[in-house]
Specification:
Blueprint: E1 3-11, H1 14-18, H2 20-35, E2 42-48, E3 54-60, E4 64-70, E5 75-83, H3 91-105, E6 109-118, E7 125-127, E8 133-135, E9 138-146, E10 151-157, E11 161-166, E12 169-173, H4 177-184, E13 193-198, H5 203-209, E14 215-220, H6 223-232, H7 234-237, E15 245-246, E16 249-253, H8 256-265, E17 272-276, H9 288-304, E18 310-317, H10 321-332, E19 338-347, E20 352-361
Helix pairs in contact: 2-3, 4-5, 8-9
């Protein structure tokens, strides 16, 4: 069983909330409209807030609860939650309810968020790196395990085929070849050496090996990701994850950051270094520890690239310009002399345009 949650909010004149007579009328109006579609609506708790607002809780039939809040700014919210696999109201009914409440209370703005399906065995909601929530047509959960490093899931969807999900963030789908293609930047990798930081889905390694490189090293910390992608996402990785060593590649299960530092100490060099790990934070104000890690990776990578070598990285979606500007600032402040270019592509399962950077050591 699960919860279905419907969220509505409205904006009214502040005095409707703060004036006791007008506020009482508002209560009656909302109860009348909601009670017409929620059988057995009964007021349970009424709290007047010191700030001048109110908070009201109702029960109803079929394990349904309604929360009604008013804030002195004029913001009014209604939350309807029912327990069970069947929605109390279908989408059209929710939209109609929003219209009726808005008209009844004289709100100058209203918004309804259609019922959210919560607590189900099959989860349809995943996060984006820029802090949005996307709903997918998930048909089944193929794999679900919490490893020492992250929560790993593989789900099958209607639109995008199978998707690798890490810690609730969609990572790569069977329809996202454009992501790998854009990350590679249209370069010719024949006879070149490359280091992949992360890349556990195998998509990048698979495409690089098609170009007959001299040698590719991939460092992925979570062997479970490799194992499950090998099993369930062969449309992405092909057979390149079937073994950890080949004539011109090696997969290392380990910490990519430590491998970078060890490589600096051992004076290794690579023609290309790919950053295929976590996305950067959404702005310079978020998670400075992660930004510092990005800076360290950039600096270490420059130490491992010869003149003309390239650092290839995905960064963030176009909806986060501050993050893109911060990444550019970090590149421009590198001790090594560099030049940078960028490219972008609409990635189907991301449902947005993603930005990639190519940093060349001069």
């Amino acid at each position: 069983m699960s919860f279905n949650t419907t969220l509505l909010d409205f904006s009214v004149a502040p005095e409707i909330i703060t004036n006791p007579v007008a506020s009482a009328t508002l209560h009656q109006q909302v109860e009348e409209v909601v009670g017409a579609v929620v059988p057995g609506l009964t007021r349970l708790i009424e709290d007047l807030l010191p700030s001048g607002g109110f908070h009201m809780t109702y029960t109803a039939e079929n394990e349904t609860f309604v929360t009604f809040r008013g804030h002195r700014s004029g913001l009014v919210s209604v939350q309807i939650e029912n327990y069970g696999e069947t929605f109390l109201m279908e989408n059209r009914a929710v939209v109609e309810l929003e219209k009726r409440i808005r008209a009844k209370i004289g709100a100058h703005r209203g918004k309804a968020i259609l019922p959210l399906k919560r607590g189900r065995d099959i989860d349809s909601y995943f996060y984006t790196s820029d802090e949005r929530l996307l709903e997918y047509g998930v048909l089944e959960t193929i794999f679900d395990e919490v490893t020492p490093y992250q929560h790993v899931q593989v789900v099958r969807t209607r639109d995008f085929g199978k998707i690798l999900v890490l810690d609730g963030f969609h990572n790569m789908s069977e329809k996202d070849f454009i992501y790998t293609e854009t990350l590679m930047g249209g370069e010719n990798y024949e006879g070149k050496t490359a280091l992949i930081l992360g890349g556990g889905d195998g998509g990048l390694l698979c495409e690089l090996l098609k170009q007959n490189p001299k040698f590719v090293t991939m460092v992925e910390i979570d062997e479970v990701v490799i194992r499950e992608c090998r099993k369930h996402l062969r449309a992405i990785c092909g057979d390149c994850l079937d073994k950890f060593d080949g004539d011109n590649f090696k997969i290392i299960v380990g910490d990519a950051f430590q491998y970078l530092k060890d490589s600096v100490q051992e004076a290794r060099t690579f023609d290309y270094i790919f950053y295929d790990l976590s996305d950067v934070p959404v702005s310079p104000r978020h998670d400075r520890d992660l930004w510092n890690m990005v800076k360290d990776v950039l600096q270490d990578s420059m130490s491992l690239l010869p003149a003309g070598g390239k650092y290839m990285s995905h960064v963030m979606g176009v909806n986060c310009p501050e993050a893109l500007e911060e990444f550019e600032r970090l590149v421009d402040e590198l001790p090594a002399k560099t030049s940078r270019t960028s490219s972008s592509a609409y990635v189907p399962s991301f449902m947005e345009t993603w930005v990639f950077y190519q940093v060349t050591k001069c």
